[in-house]
Amino acid sequence: MPLQNQADIKAATSILKSKRQTANAEPIGIFDSGVGGLSITQCIEQQLPHENLLYVADTLYAPYGEKSTEFIQQRVNDIAQWFIARNAKAIVVACNTATVNAIDQLRKNISIPVIGVEPAIKPATSISKNKKIAILVTKATAENKRFLALVAQYSHNSDVTIQPCPGLVELIEQDKKNSPECKLMLLSYLQPLLVKGVDTIVLGCTHYPLVKNLINEICGDSIVVMETAQPVTEQLKRQLVLHQLINPLNNIGETTFHSSKCCLKQQALFSHILQRTLRLNIYP
Question: Cys bridge to 83: 29, 199, 227, 240, which one at CB 3.0-4.6 A?
């Protein structure tokens, strides 16, 4: 082979490699109706430290749990397009309500990997000793056919109680997760489950891990409380590997935060949850 051709091939290979590295350094979009998805964002930051992340809290329209399916789908589509316009290489729907109401249609409309959040029903059935499980969810999730089908598919011989928790997301968004009002609300939702003999509780909303300590305080050490940040992060990593999208660069990735209700109070809430100083940007 002539030296000129070898040089051309080497140059072309170098360009392709550079383009691949540039594409792989593009951000991962993560969104929720509010701050709930920050629990998943933290897990992704810890286990995929070289990835760049874009987080959107659609707080202006939170909670999604009280909205119609059509409205939720429109918000999900708008945010996804915003991510795509910023060259996102994958999207994490860090919201149970958005996942059950909109992820199927979203996957049909865009070509990049989309990772959703689904309650840990299947592992809960294997952990529960007396086969009595409860799933804490929003109103919209409790009424969703996709979610109900998932429960029917994985509940097996277990007695599964679906417990809607209206008002809980609002208190968390108002940074009242440690308030007497929040504790009273949780007591009203959890005490009937304890009386029923439930021994495993699945957190079916990404906001709810933010009050996990309070749930544990009410339920005691004998109740297993399950959340989804770890399974979501593992699934994201699998998809990045499958599509050859892992960032090859060794520098620590950057996370930028955005909210449709951007204000100093929101910024303080984000900082409080993540235990670090950050800047909150306006979405869109």
Answer: 29
